[in-house]
From TrEMBL:
<dbReference type="InterPro" id="IPR013022">
    <property type="entry name" value="Xyl_isomerase-like_TIM-brl"/>
</dbReference>
<dbReference type="InterPro" id="IPR050312">
    <property type="entry name" value="IolE/XylAMocC-like"/>
</dbReference>
<keyword id="KW-0456">Lyase</keyword>
<dbReference type="InterPro" id="IPR036237">
    <property type="entry name" value="Xyl_isomerase-like_sf"/>
</dbReference>
<protein>
    <submittedName>
        <fullName>2-keto-myo-inositol dehydratase</fullName>
        <ecNumber>4.2.1.44</ecNumber>
    </submittedName>
</protein>
<feature type="domain" description="Xylose isomerase-like TIM barrel">
    <location>
        <begin position="36"/>
        <end position="298"/>
    </location>
</feature>
<dbReference type="GO" id="GO:0050114">
    <property type="term" value="F:myo-inosose-2 dehydratase activity"/>
</dbReference>
<dbReference type="Pfam" id="PF01261">
    <property type="entry name" value="AP_endonuc_2"/>
</dbReference>
């Protein structure tokens, strides 16, 4: 492992996801005030906005709430289905504009884009084929480039696309195809170490091979034993999370120390935001995990 003082380009944070938050409003989720209190207590300086509407969307109020807890925002997040072609552009842009405006108002510079799911994350219903046609790939890549251009022009934000289980950008082959088909001036990658491992990818290899395209990190681990069951049983992502497929570091894979070291060697400043998917979870579960995770990351030098 690197000298703990060496990871000076990595800015660590956490996200509502690590508190079991997947939706703007859900009775099984912790109230947003408690999330902010506890993420600050855990020792994090940076957060993501999470699902739009979970945190206050009034910039003045959110600025005040964050300021009282010494927190700053690293990014906003949106879901898109741009592989469906130009017909979905207007609806997509309406949603993206909302999130991008709040993201910019909070002083953040990144917008994380997650492709839409091909399989329902709760019911396992197959919504679309898991493989895109050549035409759909063209819609996806050109649509993301257009979105990256528009977001940069209108809001000054960098677009980082998040490979995700049960989406069309998931495996190593799909991620590399996406990167090889898009312009680095318009679109880069939010590498989620857990999702990439879930789909069979090697995060260190990706960082070393496509380093100039790594614009943002999500730190996450998978339990290899649970993952093997999930793959064998063809379990969709939501139920897989309920089985505990995403686990507390350092008990899973990939090892985060080497990932952070590889990211540090890129020589650029990067956010590394902890996400441990736990929806739904007991309200008292996240804080102890967050405290231990922050302590572990400090031991890695982050």
């Amino acid at each position: 492992m690197a000298n703990p003082s060496a990871l000076d380009r990595i800015r660590v944070g956490s996200a509502p996801d690590s508190w079991g938050v997947w939706f703007p409003d859900d009775p099984r989720q912790v109230p947003w005030e408690r999330f902010l209190d506890e993420v600050s207590e855990a020792g994090y300086d940076w957060i993501e906005l999470g699902p739009y509407g979970y945190l206050p969307t009034d910039p003045a109020r959110l600025t005040d709430e964050l300021g009282r807890r010494n927190l700053k925002v690293s990014a906003g997040t949106v879901f898109t289905g741009l592989h469906r072609g130009p017909a979905v552009w207007d609806e997509t842009w309406t949603h993206v504009s909302q999130v991008a405006a709040l993201t910019r108002a909070m002083g953040a510079r990144h917008l994380v884009v997650i492709p839409s799911f091909w399989r329902d994350d709760k019911t396992a219903e197959i919504l679309e084929p898991p493989e895109l046609t050549a035409e759909q790939w063209a819609h996806l890549t050109k649509g993301m480039e257009r979105l990256g251009h528009e977001v940069k022009e209108a809001y000054g934000l960098e677009l980082v696309v998040h490979p995700h289980a049960d989406t069309h950008i998931d495996t190593e082959d799909h991620v590399e195809r996406f990167l090889d088909s898009t312009d680095s001036e318009l679109v880069n990658l939010c590498l989620d170490t857990g999702h990439y491992a879930y789909c069979g990818g090697d995060s260190v290899k990706l960082i070393e091979t496509y380093g100039e395209r790594i614009g943002y990190l999500h730190l996450k681990q998978v339990d290899p034993d649970v993952l093997a069951e999930v793959v064998a049983d063809e379990v969709p992502f939501g139920p897989a999370v309920q089985r505990g497929v995403m686990c507390e570091p350092p008990s899973g894979v990939p090892a985060l120390g080497p990932v952070l070291e590889a990211a540090q060697r890129l020589g650029v400043e990067l956010f590394a935001i902890v996400e441990q998917d736990m929806y739904p979870c007991e309200p008292d579960k996240p804080l102890p995990i967050a405290l231990r995770t922050r302590r572990f990351l400090r031991s890695c030098g982050a």
